[in-house]
Amino acid sequence: MLRLLYTEASPFARKVRMAALERGVELRLERTTVHPVDRNRALGEVNPLAKIPVLISPEGTLFDSRVICRYIDRRGHGPSLYASEVADPWDILTMEALADGIMDAAVNTRYELVARPEPLRWPEWTAAQFDRIHAGLDRIEDMVDRLRSPHLGALALGAALEYLDFRHPDRPWRGRRPRLAGWLEEFGQSAPMRATPYPVEAMA
């Protein structure tokens, strides 16, 4: 069976878990830990970057989330997550890249605000990360019509938006993006989203 090393708080791991549910690919979930400073040596033995998610498959060890989702899509059943009647493959890949960039900025900002000692924090850097997040959301607001099916871009975006709510509730994003907010309200009730909620508390 495929083994996924993950944390419940990781938006990248959540994207992978949702992809597996959509494609009917069974995973054995194995929780691990990550920290921006304290390297997980056991995790580093399977991924030299010591980052998650990691998929251990018969073909070898795979990382990062985009690679793993491609692999899961190949093994799955039914329509590909990279094909849709409402978005062409390049739209899907672009939306996934935007969502991944938003997640990356949001996770890094979480580490900055929680793990870094307060005297060493860099407010201008944090502001720049949120500028990236909001610019990405503005672009996706104009692409909502291409999110009307559970393709990989939609799964990644669902994980990203709920991560913002989870880790940065003091940074509201819905106000000037009513179409995106409405989409998440509906998509958040889908089976993959409801099956993979973020935990109450964790580092990542």
TrEMBL record:
Residues in GST N-terminal domain copies: 1-80
Transmembrane region(s): none
Record keywords: Transferase
SUPFAM superfamilies in alphabetical order: GST C-terminal domain-like, Thioredoxin-like
Pfam families given in the database record: GST_C_2 (PF13410), GST_N_3 (PF13417)
Gene Ontology MF: a single term: transferase activity
PROSITE patterns, A to Z: GST_NTER
InterPro entries found in the cross-reference section: Glutathione-S-Trfase_C_sf, Glutathione_S-Trfase_N, Thioredoxin-like_sf
Protein name from the UniProt record: Glutathione S-transferase domain-containing protein
Organism: Nitratireductor indicus C115
